[in-house]
Write a structure and sequence with these properties.
mainly alpha, 0% strand
Length: 216
């Protein structure tokens, strides 16, 4: 979250004189950050409570067989809180944060056109890494592919619309360094969309990694 806040502040949108736009951006960012942080908190808590219980269940199989409460409680922590509520909250929060940051940086442009080869390589690496993170998270949790498909499609359409509308011409919109924050999110969402769609086609439906029989 500190890095997201730093990215938002670097746009300069909150440094302007207070008005309805700066107030709205600030409130939306705090709201999205709250959703994301709450999801991360739920996830950490569920994992913290789940693992000691799993160790106890493995060590006391007879007691677990006698009292089904342990298995039900473990499933409740793992399925309801860790894999459903927590994952969906921070996935939604992450998308909303990126949309707010993208809006704040909709005018940000590299005057040099990102002419440095190092800058371009770093940009591509960041895009690929972010796309892989979103795609892999979608594959990991139950029904994550269908939720991610909806959220990533939303992010792709919003960022793509902003990228093109700002310049009115597609060729200028995809020029290196032109509104590079929007370009980053748009390219990453497109990559994640490809990963998720490819996974759905490979797995034969909206299933996660474990349901598809892939274990590590």
């Amino acid at each position: 979250m500190p890095l997201y806040l730093a990215l938002l502040m670097s746009s300069g949108i909150l440094a302007a004189a207070p008005n309805r736009r700066t107030y709205t951006v600030g409130v939306l960012f705090m709201f999205a950050s709250g959703i994301y942080s709450q999801g991360a908190g739920f996830h950490s808590a569920a994992v913290m409570f789940k693992h000691p219980l799993k160790l106890f269940m493995d060590d006391q199989p007879g007691l677990v067989a006698t009292y089904p409460f342990f298995s039900k409680y473990y499933a409740w922590q793992r399925t309801t809180w860790e894999h459903t509520i927590a994952h969906y909250l921070y996935a939604l929060g992450g998308i909303l944060i990126s949309i707010v940051v993208g809006y704040a940086h909709r005018h940000t442009t590299d005057a040099k056109g990102m002419s440095s080869r190092i800058d371009r390589c770093m940009f591509v690496l960041a895009v690929v890494l972010y796309a892989l993170i979103m795609g892999s998270v979608a594959i990991e949790f139950p029904k994550g592919s269908i939720v991610a498909l909806c959220l990533i499609a939303l992010g792709t359409s919003v960022m793509g619309t902003w990228v093109v509308r700002r310049d009115r011409r597609w060729r200028k919109a995809v020029t290196w360094g032109n509104r590079y924050v929007l370009q980053f999110y748009f390219a990453a969402y497109c990559g994640a969309l490809v990963i998720v769609v490819a996974w759905i086609a490979h797995a034969g439906g909206f299933v996660d990694r474990e349901d598809a029989g892939i274990t590590f």
